[in-house]
Please model this.
Amino acid sequence: MMKKLIRCIAATGVLTLGLIQHANANLPVFDASNFIQNTATAIAAVKGEAYQDSNLIYQYQMMLNQLKQATNLDPTAMLAQFKSITSDIADLSKYTDVLKDLYGGLQSNAEYASKVQALITQSGKTTEQWFADQNTLLQNNDKTAKQLFQQGNDVISHVSTLAKRRQEIQDQLNMSPTMEATAQLTTHMLDIISSQNGDLISMMAAKQRSDAVKDSATVAEQQANNSAKAALKAQQDRERAAFEAQIGSSKTLGQ
Model:
């Protein structure tokens, strides 16, 4: 279940990196309040998971201290247990560090959504009209609109990358049932945020789609031009060869 959810997150990560080329019909509805609330819930889930794992690291460290103070233990068994505990501490520490980065990324995500909500409110327009205006500005290469879109793209892409990294490390951990349940809750919330991030970017990405169509047309035109040039060159080569053959075989001056 978790791997299926993270695939959705990774797919949305690709979406936010500028590969949005689907039709502009049936755009999603952007509910800023719901988006911000869901992001806050995801932040709390990540914070809770990080706190739980930090406690586990502390417990492992206590076990390690007890092991170091132990006496009359088989040295080989003691070394094996020592390596196992230190390995678990290293893996959990790496995982917790990613969770802390993800926590910060989600906060930036919420701040960006709040910024968009504020801009919509200040404009006095409907949400749909505001996004339509942004699309027009993007297509006209408006600097402010491009900066706003790029900021959102960067924030959302960063969250997607961290979510993927979290899943990669999580797949390598030997998790207890409690840890798995906590991780599933976090993954579920990240999936919701991923979906809403994709909706937000797609509503502002008309320029990306426009560029994709333009680039496709440019490539087709280039290919056609190259074919025409190749055909012309081939024709010129044939005419030159025929002319040279005629000159080479001529026995009469000027013929």
Helices lie at 2-16, 32-69, 75-123, 127-139, 143-170, 177-204, 206-249. DSSP finds seven helices and no strands in the chain. The radius of gyration is 30 Å. Confidence is low (pLDDT under 50) at residues 1-25, 209-213, 250-255.
